[in-house]
Write a structure and sequence with these properties.
Chain lengths: 320, 292
């Protein structure tokens, strides 16, 4: 059970009604999450959903407009240095200084991080056959990603945040990169937060899932629990949403039948008593796509009324 | 952090040293011949007992020979080079990080960005002060013989002695750092910083400088027509080397006395240093505001 996971192990990440406004537009609003230590979290959402806003607030690059945030116990009120020390970060497109050598990049890491692990960084480069003397601009995209990852890991932070880590890489480099991440995470018990819109990548690696659209959390929880809580029902087209067992997340109507993804109370068997109804388990990708396609609440509008009006699965997911 | 700053600005430091070296070579070559000529014409002795009035031919010969080179060569240098150095160094300091996305790397290490910026600004500002002081020293040494004839209150002379040259560099640097944060692009930031810098620089020089302190007046027994140019750079109206004559109306001459050089240097450098402090202060505040 998710509840127990979150309760027994220390929390890696906790947010409480976290929000960030840019001028008059909310980039992210009302974000309440709990992620247990050791989870491999997939953060999914279309471009502009607020993924980077959330990540930057977690890392300490961006100050929230409202709400609370704590990363391994370090809250927003903790000294900046303590907050920064909790997170290793691989930014999108793996930014490095082009005219630095790999050794220079590590020197930078060493002089800017008190707990820097030079041996780890160098050993990784050796294993990957990347010469320390080579300039960053002479590296391939995959090698640059590996240098970025090595820097984030050598920081020895308990939370590793990856923002679109593989979207700029070719398939082989993608595989190598994710394999490295997973091996290290398993070895050292890291909590990993991966933002991506490549859903298929996440399915293989993530055991925890957060879906963001329009600056709102749509779905959050352990992947196994979420899969168990959802079912795909095929029902006669005339069936009303109100008659369905559970909350209809996404509905597709064809000529005679409707396919509905419903969220049910966990463990409660979906009504098999209805003749002509068919219930199937939901796939990981199908689940995410259903939530991504849901019309999102406009984050800029008054959200109390809307939150009350909406029997939101996200509310249920995050309130546990 | 100190190593990081050094590594990132190493190239700029070397370029600045190259500029300084080129200036020094030029100054030594021309300055040596100027010193030789100055001694050869026995100008030292002449100046000592008569402000140059008893040896007009020698004064004229010297100023004719070196005056144009001194003014033309250094006018262009002093007008734009401090600004160029300042904006080239300052324009990339933050904007380059924003342009290439490396700010996400730089500011997510275990060093808060406020400290990152403070260390960088302190080191680079320090480097620019050293550079400005060295350039000033080279130019002052080189100009020394000519200054004994001209004083150093005049435009084109005042601008590269004392404190102001360093202050000009710092001001352009400060503007460019701020512009880099606002525009997020190095080249536009450099342009956007250079234009107001040049405008302020010219307005202060040509509109305000002559009136930093109320000018002195004196009554002379000559009029604008009969006072003439004076000998060398000695204004006939006041008879003292280095006095800056602003106007002669009838027989009343308005001028700034030569001994106000350092006062004026402090005032003008103070203005530019205040502008620098304002720009850098705004940068620190803006950067801090995004993430506490």
């Amino acid at each position: 059970m998710t509840q127990n996971d979150a309760g027994d192990s220390p929390l890696a990440l906790r947010t409480d009604h976290l929000g960030r406004r840019y001028g008059r537009v909310w980039g992210l609003r009302d974000c309440t999450l709990e992620v247990p230590a050791g989870a491999i979290v997939g953060l999914v959402g279309p471009n502009g959903a607020g993924k980077t806003t959330l990540l930057e607030m977690i890392i300490g690059l961006l100050q929230p407009t409202e709400g609370q945030l704590s990363v391994f116990g370090e809250t927003l009120h903790a000294p900046m240095t303590a907050r920064l020390a909790r997170v290793g970060y691989v930014a999108q497109d793996h930014p490095l200084y082009r005219d630095f050598s790999v050794a220079d990049m590590f020197h930078l890491g060493r002089s800017m991080n008190p707990s820097w692990d030079q041996e780890l960084a160098q050993a990784r480069m050796e294993a990957l056959d990347i010469p320390l003397k080579r300039k960053v601009k002479a590296l391939s995209g995959g090698q640059r990603a590996q240098v970025s990852l090595s820097m984030a890991l050598a920081k020895r932070a308990p939370l590793l945040v990856l923002d679109e880590p593989v979207s700029s890489l070719d398939p082989v480099a993608r595989l190598e990169f994710m394999r490295e991440v997973m091996a290290t995470a398993a070895e050292s018990g890291l909590t990993v937060l991966i933002a991506s819109h490549v859903v298929s990548e996440l399915e293989r690696f993530c055991d925890w899932l957060i879906v963001l659209t329009g600056g709102q959390v749509q779905l959050a929880g352990s992947a196994d629990d979420l899969i168990a809580e959802h079912q795909v029902l095929t029902v006669p087209r005339a069936t009303l949403d109100a008659d369905l067992p559970g909350f209809p997340v996404h509905r597709t109507d064809s000529d005679r039948h409707s396919t509905v993804l419903v969220r049910t109370e966990q463990g409660r068997p979906v009504a098999r008593e209805h003749p002509g109804w068919q219930a199937d388990p939901v796939g990981f990708e199908q689940l995410i796509m259903a939530y991504l396609q849901r019309p999102s609440r406009s984050a800029a509008k008054d959200d109390t009324a809307q939150a009350a009006a909406r029997p939101g699965p996200s509310t249920k997911a995050v309130s546990r | 952090m100190i190593w990081v700053s050094w590594r990132q600005h190493r190239g700029q430091a070397i370029s600045c040293l190259a500029v300084l070296a080129a200036l020094a070579v030029y100054a030594i070559l021309l300055g040596t011949s100027m010193r030789t000529a100055f001694g050869h014409d026995a100008l030292t002795a002449c100046l000592a007992h008569s402000q140059g009035t008893v040896c007009p031919a020698a004064v004229h010969a010297f100023t004719d020979r070196f005056g144009s080179e001194v003014n033309i060569a250094f006018w262009s240098v002093t007008l734009i080079v401090p600004g160029l150095i300042g904006v080239l160094v300052g324009g990339s300091l933050i904007a380059r990080e924003l342009e290439y996305g490396t700010w996400r790397l730089a500011w997510s290490q275990t060093v808060p960005r406020a400290r990152w910026l403070a260390v960088k600004l302190a080191l680079v500002t320090g480097g620019l002060i050293v550079l400005g002081a060295a350039m000033t020293a080279v130019i002052t040494w080189y100009r020394a013989p000519m200054d004994r004839l001209t004083g150093h209150l005049e435009h084109n002379i005042f601008d590269f002695e004392g404190l102001v040259l360093t202050a000009y560099i710092l001001c352009a640097f400060g503007f460019a750092v701020l512009a880099g944060l606002l525009l997020r692009r190095s080249i536009p930031a450099m342009v956007a910083a250079f234009i107001p810098w040049l405008a302020i620089r010219l307005v202060i020089e040509f509109v305000f400088r002559d009136h930093f302190l109320a000018p002195l007046t004196a009554t002379v027994n000559c009029t604008q027509e009969t006072c003439g140019e004076g000998i060398g750079f000695v204004p006939q109206a006041t008879g003292r080397i280095g006095d800056l004559v602003l106007s002669i109306q009838g027989n009343v001459v308005t001028y700034q006395p030569a001994d106000r050089f350092w006062t004026f240097q402090f005032i003008e450098a103070g203005i530019f240093v205040a502008l620098t402090a304002a720009a850098l202060g705004a940068t620190i505040w803006l950067l801090h505001r995004r993430a506490a």
